[in-house]
Amino acid sequence: MQGSSRSLVANIVIVIVSVGLIAWAIRLVQLKFTSVASLDAVVNGVVIDIKTPQEGIITSLNADTGSIIEKDSVLLSIKNDQVSNLQVKQTSSRLSSQQSQLASAEGQLNQLLSLMELLQADNQNQKRLEVTEYSDRIEQFESDLRGAIARSQLAQVNYDRAVFLQKEGAYSQAVLDLAKAELQARKAEVESLEARRQSILTNREAASIGLTLDRTRSNYDPRVRLEEVQLQIDNQQRTISALRQSIADAKGELIEAKADVERHRNVIVKAPVSGVIWKLDARKGQLVRQEQSVGQMLDCSRRWVDVYVEEQSLEAIQIGMPAKIELYGSRNLVLKGTVSLIRSGLGRFNAGEDVAITIPQNLPRTTQIRVDLERNSDLGAPNVFCYVGYTGKVTLNK
To answer: Which parts pass through the membrane (predicted)?
Structure first.
């Protein structure tokens, strides 16, 4: 019974082992026909130079080799006390000159405005005097007109008497003619005085609204001077407006020039991308040149895996094929990606040459495959450098 029991257990073990071996063999066959395994694979990535935009002395360092850095984080600061201040001085000098010109122009404008007030007062006084003068002349002419009318009326009476007496034979024709001539002269005098009185009335009306009809204005006339001063005031106001705009522009240029000097005097170097510091050769207090490389940074969002497979596997590989990357030395870390490049002929061909290199028949022939990693793949812990340089096993699924 014991022998039978041992035989049964042994048989069960043999069956289990056999099933396991068969399953393992089936799995190997399945993998052989459904996937391609790499001969070698290494993680690669974009390395960006960290350069200094300005010469000077490094005053601070905020990162070190292996540091994980976010985009636009400050890596280091540079100070340069030798930055030229010439642009600031020239702009300040021009601004001071323009401000002096503005003060002078405003002073001249105030003088012109004061002169304008005096001329306006003189103009009002002259208008009043002219109206008064014409009023006095009108009164004089009205008095003369009344006398002329009286003399005309008397001449009319004398003429009527002379006509009556000439008809009665008391006066001769010569006396009648003389009386008639006297009457006509008196009427002409009245008409002349009436006309001159009307002319003076018109001139008084013109004077009351600042016009003149019987004289030519000279440069001493307040109204002429008012027009001249008003033109000068308008020109001066335009000049002041232009100077104020120029001063505003110069102030803006001065602010920008000072900011530019400050930017060149105190420069900060920021991380161009998010990633890991690959190496940093800078140190605090170091004198650096413009565009000097002080280190390198890995762009962890742009990585790929260079994979090498047997050339006979090319028939099963296509662009866009998914890939699984298992890194050596990193437990339970599996990266994913897709095939983006296939390059064959490694070791047997140099691009640009018209003669291929002959190699032995039994030398292994390999093909380079590039696998782009997914952007959400693990970036790695500190000091791991995004796993760039790590080797591993890549499986390409058919």
So the answer is: 7-26
Is 171 found in the same domain as 104? yes
Residues in the chain: 398
DSSP state of 385: G
Contact 395, 322 (CB under 8 A): no
**Are 38 and 278 in contact, with CB atoms under 8 Å apart?**
no
Q: Would you say 72 and 269 are in contact if contact means Cβ atoms under 8 Å apart?
A: no
Give the end of a domain, one of 215, 248, 281.
248
192 alpha-carbon distance from chain centroid: 78
pLDDT tops 60 at residue 216: no
pLDDT for residue 22 = 67
Q: Do residues 109 and 251 touch, judged by C-beta distance below 8 A?
A: no
Q: Indicate whether 120 and 45 sit together in one domain.
A: no
Q: Locate tokens 């662009």: which residue?
A: 319
CA angle 298, 299, 301 (to 5 degrees): 140
CA distance 386 to 382: 9
- Residue 278 belongs to a domain: no
The CATH number covering residue 156 comes to: 1.20.120
Q: How confident is residue 226, by pLDDT bands cut at 50, 70 and 90?
A: confident
Give how many domains the chain has, as a whole number: 2
Q: Assess contact for 46 and 375: CB atoms under 8 A.
A: no
Contact criterion met (CB below 8 Å) for 326 and 393 = yes
Residue where a domain stops, chosen among 216, 248, 280: 248
- The type of residue at 263 is R
Torsion sign across C-alpha atoms 167, 169, 171, 177 = positive
User: Which residue in 306, 116, 66 sits closest to 230, CA to CA?
Assistant: 116
Residue 173 lies in a domain: yes
The amino acid that residue 25 corresponds to is A
In a domain, 79, yes or no: no
Alpha carbon 329 to chain centroid, angstroms? 54
CB-hemisphere CA count at 13 Å for 44? 10
Q: What is the pLDDT of residues 136-192, one digit of tens each?
A: 777 777 787 788 888 888 888 888 887 877 787 777 787 777 878 887 888 888 888
Q: Which domain holds residue 357?
A: 35-54+293-397
Neighbours of 309 (CB within 10 A): 23
